[in-house]
Amino acid sequence: MSLRERLLIRRLRDRDEAAFRDLFETYGDRIFSLVLRMIGNRAEAEDLAQEVFVTVFKSIDQFRGDAKLSTWLYRVAVNHCKNRVKYLARRHDRRTGVLDETAERAAAAQGGEPVAAGRIAAPDRALEGAETERLVQAAIAELEEDHRLVIVLRDIEELSYEEIASIAGVPEGTIKSRLHRARLALKEKLGKHM
């Protein structure tokens, strides 16, 4: 664990609100991305990502330091996602929203400015890329929860097998076999759409 991380944890344990902002600025996008891909609905993901950070702030004293802070954050986020999926399934309200991030991606490519359709450098390629992204996200959303988790953590968030095993609470070998099966399932689902 880095010195910066240890200092942040100490500040969080002291209930320093500036530390909470630092935590959110450092990890907010990554946690939101994970939650969005696990839940599939932007509004739900926004609420849930906020809940993750509130939970972390309230329960920072439970962090033992056995893993990196980011690993613990992911574990909290994954547990929140699993609970929300169960809750939504009980309510029969599990909607997998279309992940329309085209404008955001185009804005990032153009230096962060909102982009009007006429200002996109290559609108046909941007549209094709957005459609491919939509298909991949839809296919990921159709995966079993354990498969979706390993695909998101390994192939999108680029975490190590060790970190994923720690987050999921299973051995690395299990993660590797789940990832193999998840990639096969994803390839099959994408084959139907492409």
Number of strands: 0
The number of distinct helices, counting runs of at least 4 residues, comes to: 9
Q: Largest sheet, if any?
A: none
Rg: 18 Å
Describe this structure in words.
With 194 residues, this protein is an all-alpha fold. It has a domain at 1-97: Rna Polymerase Sigma Factor, Chain: A. It is built from nine helices and no strands. Residues 93-119 have low confidence and may be disordered.
Secondary structure elements and pairings:
Elements lengths: L2 H11 L3 H23 L2 H17 L10 H22 L11 H8 L13 H20 L2 H12 L4 H8 L3 H22 L1
Helix pairs in contact: 1-2, 2-3, 2-4, 3-4, 4-8, 6-9, 7-9, 8-9
Summarize the model shown:
The chain has 194 residues and is mainly alpha-helical. The protein is built from 9 helices and no strands. Helix 2 runs antiparallel to helix 3 (42-58).
Feature tags:
194 residues, 9 helices, globular, Rna Polymerase Sigma Factor, Chain: A, single chain, mainly alpha
